[in-house]
Amino acid sequence: MVPSLEGILSYLKSDPQRSGGQVSNVFRSESRRIRWPAIPKPANAKMMSVLHQLSLSEWSLDTTIRKRQAAQLVRLLAYAIDKVPYYRERRSEYVCGLDDTESGWTALPVLGRADLQQEEKRLIGDEFRQRRERVYEVSSSGSTGRPVRVLQNREVQFFWHVFTLREHFWHRRDPLLKLATIKHYRQGRHAYPGFRRSGWGSALDSMVETGDLALLNSATDVDLQVKWLSETEPAYLLTYPSNLKLLASEFIARGKSLENLRQIRCLGETVDEEVRRLTEAAWGVDVADMYSAQEVGYIALQCPDHP
Fold first, then answer.
1. What are the residue boundaries of the structural domains of the chain, listed by start?
2. What is the pLDDT of residues 153-170, one digit of tens each?
3. Long-range contacts of 158-164 (CB under 8 A, 24+ apart)
4. Among 179, 227, 244, 259, which is most exposed with the fewest C-beta within 10 angstroms?
């Protein structure tokens, strides 16, 4: 008897290891009649197209990648000089960057944090100021001083989602499993006992089927964090390296473990060798590091083949 598609999917979901940790390959389909290969919604198709282009670029020569990056940087700077008052008024200082060379780009003046805060209004582009498209306001946490506030459009949101998906797919995570996040939430949100819901987040939820998400404020006492994690039993944990170090030390001291844990993701701070050593000793899993900022997006992602 030939097994049904539902039977195969049920089999894979019952033990994600059978699918090599890539149940994420079962994408959501816009068609009720065709589940595989999935017919994606237009927005998802755009993201998949960009992901495919980025995947192909991983095998390109360094010179080819740099040439494409330089061309995009020139377009970005030309837009800024034309549309953003701050850069338009300083055209003579920035025009050197329009030269498609590394020396021209490195000669550009550096925009410091204080400049960004002081010139906030002058750094808003004409199209944003005139609200020709929907914009979103985001700001840094302000953990090192006065927060930085910036405006973003749908293209920025789009690439946030693309790189979030890329990081998940790189590390072959199974999105049907449980994700736990312990980080800062404003106004004391998600204090113990935290918050739980279905779905990992908008970037992944629209693309593939996802499991549960558990959230906890990192201001929670470490004893309660240990209790919460032991009760939550996540497959994946996202937190800060400094918090991870405390948690790993506590789990080791108490002789406790997290049986379902597969990987830990870190953000916001530097991951040093001690963090990796303690994580391995506490739970026997690796750490995936990523570097990002609210005002600029993803800066660097850890290659899964070269931790």
1. 1-39, 62-132, 164-301
2. 889 999 999 999 999 999
3. 158/46, 158/47, 159/50, 159/297, 160/203, 160/297, 160/298, 161/47, 161/202, 161/203, 162/47, 162/50, 162/51, 162/54, 163/297, 163/298, 163/301, 164/201, 164/203, 164/204, 164/298
4. 259
